[in-house]
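seq as requested:
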Amino acid sequence: MSGLIGADDRPMREGADEAAVFDCLEPPKARALVMAGVECFADLGFDGTTTRDIAERVDLSPAAVYVHFPSKADLLFTISKLGHESALQTLEAAAASEPPGTERIGAMISAFAAWHARNRRLAKVVQYELDAIPPERRPELNRMRRRFETVFESTIEEGIEANLLTAPDVAGAAMAILSLCIDVARWYSPQGPRSPESLGRFYADLLLRMLNAAPATA
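C-alpha cells:
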C-alpha cells in the first residue's frame, strides 16, 4: 500500500477516539478500568488477561474491578456493547449524509473502515472476542450486528435499483464489505503510511469497483 499514500496522511493520536467511546461511563475509575480492559484484551486476549492485569494498568488493586463490574466477562460485555454502538452510529451517520447510490455506499465504507483504524484496539476486542461474551448477553449484540448487515444490504439494493451498482448476491456483497473493513483492526498500525481517513477513502474506491460503480468522490 505504500505506493498509494495520500498527501493528507497524518499520524493519529493513539487511543484518543477509543477513550471518547466510553465518556458515558461513570465514575472515572470505571472508565479507566474499561480502557485498561481494552488494552489488555487487545494485547493478551480475553482468556490470557486477569483482573490483576487490568487493575495494574491503572494502579488499582484487583478487587477494584469487582467494585464496578460483577466479573471480567461483564467488563468485556460493556466494552463490546459500547464499541458496537459507536461503530453503528458512525455507519448510520454516514448512510444519512449522502443521497442513495454510489455516494452513500462510498461514504459508509469509508467511515466504517476508518472507524476500525481509529479504534483499532477496541475494534479488535469487539470483533474477535465475541465467543467470550456470556451466552445470555449475546442477543443484544447480535441484534446490533444484524443492523450492520441490514444497512449495507439496503444501500446496495438501492444502488442496484437505480442502475448504479451491480451485485448478483446482495447479502454476500454486504458481508464481503463488512469483513474487509472489520479486518482493518487486525493489521492496522497508526505508525504506518496511511491515516484512518486515507485508508477509508482507499477502501471505498476499491469496494465500489467491486460493485461495478465509479470511484467514490467523497
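Residues 14-210 form a domain with the Tetracycline Repressor; domain 2 fold (CATH 1.10.357.10).
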